[in-house]
Inverse folding.
């Protein structure tokens, strides 16, 4: 997906158009990741005896789901860097105080959202910061400790007499709880759009109504007309 070279800030008075802002791969990645994370959470809690799925079956499903998620993350990391979409996760910190103020009490008072989604910047500063933390800290901690768990028979002799496995277990469990908290907050945030289902619908269809500059509208009409809804 080629981004149009525009300013990061587009006047809210620019004409709005319904545009596909999330590609098929972005939507596939999002929903596949969500399904795998829920599967891992359910089986993980079952392994610890908190849910009714049997231990052996839970371990098998958990292991295969973990491998699938690691493969998905590897392909998605490659996609982000080859398409330039990794820039979406670099937060504009100057706008963060206004975003925090809005979510702290402005949203309860019916204040307008201080951020306007654009073709180039789909996420506000708080979202970018949260996703960056998820992909750079929580995700790597989860899959690296998970790989260490899966390959424990290969390094068990080296770790004999140490607390290495306990440390791996602690990191994995802590990352799992952090990712669970992230998911809960993420689900709540999906209800804060124009309607409670607006953001979910956008991530299913890929389309949202956003302001477009003349340059962006001209570019899409000429080079990617399938992304514009008439």
């Amino acid at each position: 997906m080629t981004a149009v070279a525009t300013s990061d800030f587009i006047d809210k008075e620019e004409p709005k158009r319904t545009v596909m802002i999330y590609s098929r791969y972005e939507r596939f990645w999002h929903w596949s990741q969500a399904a795998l994370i829920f599967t891992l959470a359910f089986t993980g809690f079952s392994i610890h005896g908190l849910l009714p799925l049997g231990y052996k079956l839970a371990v098998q499903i958990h292991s295969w789901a973990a491998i699938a998620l690691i493969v998905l993350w590897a392909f998605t990391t490659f996609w982000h860097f080859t398409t330039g979409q990794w820039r979406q996760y670099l937060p504009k910190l100057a706008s963060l105080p206004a975003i925090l103020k809005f979510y702290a009490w402005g949203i309860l008072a019916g204040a307008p959202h201080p951020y306007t989604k654009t073709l180039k910047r789909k996420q506000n500063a708080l979202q970018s910061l949260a996703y960056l933390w998820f992909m750079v800290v929580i995700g790597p901690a989860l899959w690296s400790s998970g790989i260490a768990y899966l390959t424990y028979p290969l390094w068990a002799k080296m770790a004999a007499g140490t607390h290495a496995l306990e440390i791996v277990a602690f990191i994995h469990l802590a990352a799992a709880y952090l990712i669970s908290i992230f998911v809960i907050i993420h689900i709540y945030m999906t209800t804060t759009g124009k309607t409670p289902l607006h953001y979910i619908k956008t991530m299913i269809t890929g389309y949202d109504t956003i302001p477009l500059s003349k340059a962006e509208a001209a570019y899409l009409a000429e080079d990617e007309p399938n992304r514009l809804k008439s």
Q: What stands out?
A: The radius of gyration is 21 Å. Confidence is low (pLDDT under 50) at residues 1-11.
